[in-house]
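User: Can you model how iron/sulfur cluster sits in this protein?
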Amino acid sequence: MLTYANYSDSPLNHEEPSASDPTKGAQGILNWAYQTYGDSLVYACSFGAESMVMIDLIANVKPDAKLVFLDTGLHFQETYDLIDEVKEKYPKLDIVMKEPSLTVDEQREQYGSALWSRDPNQCCYIRKIKPLEEVLSGATAWISGLRRAQSPSRANTDFINKDDRFESVKVCPLIHWTWDDVWNYIKDHQLPYNSLHDENYPSIGCIPCTSKVLDNEDERAGRWANFNKTECGLHVAPQSAK
Ligand code: SF4
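Assistant: Here's the modeled complex, given as structure tokens:
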């Protein structure tokens, strides 16, 4: 098995996707990942546009795959509605709604109101990072929908990545996909998606930290728009997060 220590030697990371492969290598990486890691492989699913593609590709390989949604308790109703649609379309999937140890009310009692507006890193740590740490404590590898074109901080993502944050292996099948690729796939395969995407929300997270973007803005510009923050901390090394 490919391990945390020798991931970078994998020839998979150096293969250019074949021009005849409409998934740009994604389906092959998923096949490999489920053969390699089996039931211990977890997909951390945000139910964003990339997730719709990934779920469809995963269902081709492992219809009963385990998906984990970090249910912060602060998501849009449209996101929960989409999850219900996905459950109907892919009934065998094992969708785990992972909640933080503190409810939103308990967090307010301990840290004061609207922690996200004063210290979003602390809030993300409580509501996203810690819960994912708990999920991944029993997993050897996890799947993420990162794409290189999403932002400069994601430009060097490989198919298979050493994950210092969670001491794991992070498999990123969609690295070669563009935003247009994602939407062409969704439309061609008539997949469900979050209706907020039609209202200028390209990237959707928690309600307090998600806003609409202007037509000329980066697709992640609407996340933590008033903070010098572009990532929740799931994809950065531990010293960058509390
Ligand atoms: Fe808190 Fe915002 Fe992070 Fe959600 S995205 S966990 S509300 S800081």
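A couple of observations from the model: The chain has one domain: 21-240. The radius of gyration is 17 Å.
User: Helpful, thanks.
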